[in-house]
Amino acid sequence: PFLEYIRAPGGLDKVVLRGRRSCSVEIRLFGGQVTSWKNDHGEELLFVSSKAIKPPKPFRGGIPICFPQFGTQGNLEQHGFARNRLWAIDDNPPPLPVNPAIKAFVDLILKPSEDDLKMWPHSFEFRLRIALGAGGDLSLTSRIRNTNTDGRPFSYTFAFHTYFSVSDIR
Prior knowledge:
The structure is a single chain. The protein has about 170 residues and is mainly β. The protein has a single domain, classed as Beta-galactosidase, Chain A, domain 5. It is about 5% helix and about 30% strand. It has one helix and ten strands. It has one helix at about 115-120; strands spanning about 5, 15-20, 25-30, 35-40, 65, 90, 100-110, 125-135, 140-145, 160. Strand 1 and strand 2 (about 15-20) form a beta hairpin. The radius of gyration is 16 Å and the shape is globular.
């Protein structure tokens, strides 16, 4: 199968996308975060620290989602709260343009909790498509929608904070 859902203890459920040969992508629902991306040769392309891989702490490594703020550029915790929340699989995403190169994908969604709205009083839907192409290419497509009932605008910052695996940190 190109898509596999794996239940794991301690909030570590994940989705695995598989491509041809040995390429794959693992996505943790906690944080909506890619934590592994392997090429056709099974080589890991992302770094994940062995020190922080248990909720409620964010994963250190992979591709964390920084939202609704990046760094300390606001009043929230560093990089916002999206990387510390449980995302859901989005079974009814709005359509995206068809890309025949995509072989497997999963759509995730994050909506604010009551606690989130107390810290950051803006209603939103954050939709994230994570896709694996035929050649092992990885793409992440974000769509953030204002769902405030009064139409009140809000500002935010956002980033994919990618940790690539490198042979020499220098």
